[in-house]
Design brief:
Length: 433
């Protein structure tokens, strides 16, 4: 396998694995907090059981995220030394702050885990909230670094080196706010629909179980709100990409030729050699409106950029279509929940709905992974957009096959252990229900 492809594949695998567990560990502490707050008000045993269950899940996933994230940070230096040499002094600050947020999250989680019966309940509740707040801060700060790769700022590039470095300008880059918001909402969306599916399994095994029924009362509002807000944030994100990275937008839409009143492509399979798309549905003026709010606006196609600076079209377009398609499916499900609530319909007593929720368990995470593919692959061939190419930053060290194998074994082992512990916990709670 090509040396660059090996390095990119290893990084993609590690990032793709870590982002799932990191997303869950950002969201689950908030669920734990909500359940514990409800317990302090109601003293209901179901709320206490939920709090403890989600507390255990938070601890398991925090440990998995910590190990996978640490290994991922080492890979940045090992696989992309030239990138880190130049980029480290520029965006080192958000990474340092992320480390501080991570340690605070660990401290607050420890205080919550071992504070039962030892500290005042209100202080205990505050610690639960701070686990989630610090987890979100950690995620936001990491995305600041990734946003900088898409919208470099805070330096002057002179003779192949960064000068006049301003870490604050680098951290508060143009891509960061929307990219962070889009990602955090996706984390809530993916985690809540997956958790609904897991509790649906419990309800299929033991219909009417109070523990699982109560869990859905916390999870459904979280899923509905995040699913209905996400399309609005996604629209703003698309407009931002159209302005900052027009070639990425062109790859997302398989838009090969610059034109006014550009059509929005739904589905389709692009052929990069012939610059055509098969089987797609085109909505006239749709892309122009999506990108610039004007159906007659001109949208740059891939023909406006040199061939060696164009992103891979097929995988970027496919990732975008998967992300949008699953996102719209979740919008439909959210609207069904709203309609059912209005009509007082108990969906969780219908076995076909429980089966649908089980089938939807991976949907949010598939959409999340697809979104990251669009973000990362759509930026290629640049590791720092229009500053440094990925091929110029890869390590010269050979033997990446072995490091890739070690990473795969490590991460799959971590994943298997985590899933086993979570399933065992869920099974025990179902038996007690």
């Amino acid at each position: 396998m090509d040396h660059l492809l090996l390095a990119r594949s290893q990084m993609a695998f590690a990032l793709g694995f870590h982002i799932i567990f990191a997303s869950i560990s950002m969201v689950m502490p908030f669920l734990m907090f909500l359940a514990y707050r409800a317990y302090l008000k109601t003293r209901d045993d179901a709320d206490l059981r939920l709090t403890r269950a989600w507390m255990k899940g938070s601890a398991i996933l925090f440990a998995t995220g910590a190990v996978s994230g640490t290994a991922l940070s080492f890979q940045l230096g090992l696989l992309w030394p030239t990138f880190m040499e130049h980029a480290g002094p520029i965006f080192g600050m958000p990474f340092s702050l992320e480390g501080a947020a991570f340690f605070l999250e660990a401290i607050f989680l420890g205080l919550f885990l071992y504070g039962w019966g030892r500290i005042p309940e209100k202080l205990h509740l505050f610690f639960a909230l701070m686990v989630g707040v610090c987890g979100l801060a950690s995620g936001i700060l990491v995305i600041a670094a990734n946003g900088w790769m898409n919208a470099p700022a805070g330096f002057d590039w002179v003779n192949g080196r960064a000068e006049n470095i301003d870490p604050w300008a680098a951290m508060f880059n143009r891509a960061w706010p929307l990219q962070a918001l889009h990602m955090l909402i996706a984390a809530f969306q993916a985690t809540s629909i997956a958790a609904i599916g897991l509790h649906a399994v419990g309800l299929m095994l033991k219909p009417g179980a109070v523990f699982h029924r109560r869990a859905t009362q916390f999870l459904v509002p979280c899923f509905v709100i995040s699913s209905l807000v996400q399309p609005l944030v996604g629209d703003l994100s698309a407009k931002s990409v159209a302005e900052r990275q027009p070639e990425k937008l062109a790859a997302m839409e398989a838009h090969f030729h610059t034109e006014s009143r550009a059509p929005l492509l739904i589905g389709g399979w692009p052929d990069e050699e012939t610059e055509t798309v098969s089987w797609g549905i085109r909505i006239p003026g749709g892309l122009s409106f999506l990108a610039f709010g004007d159906v007659s606006a001109e949208v740059k196609g891939l023909d406006a950029f040199p061939e060696d600076e164009r992103p891979p079209v097929a995988i970027t377009h496919l990732g975008f279509q998967v992300m949008v398609g699953l996102g719209m499916l979740m919008v439909v499900i959210a609207l069904v929940y709203l309609y059912a609530g209005w009509k007082k319909i108990d969906l969780f007593r219908r076995r076909w709905w429980l089966k649908l929720m089980v089938a939807m368990i991976p949907a949010g995470f598939i959409a999340l992974e697809a979104g990251w593919i669009v973000t990362e692959v759509g930026r290629q061939p640049w590791i720092i957009y229009r500053v440094m190419k990925t091929a110029d930053s890869v390590t010269p060290v050979t033997g990446l096959e072995w490091s890739f194998l070690i990473i795969v074994i490590l991460y799959l082992t971590l994943g298997a252990i985590s899933l086993f512990l979570l399933w065992r916990m869920m099974k025990l709670e179902t038996e007690r229900a």
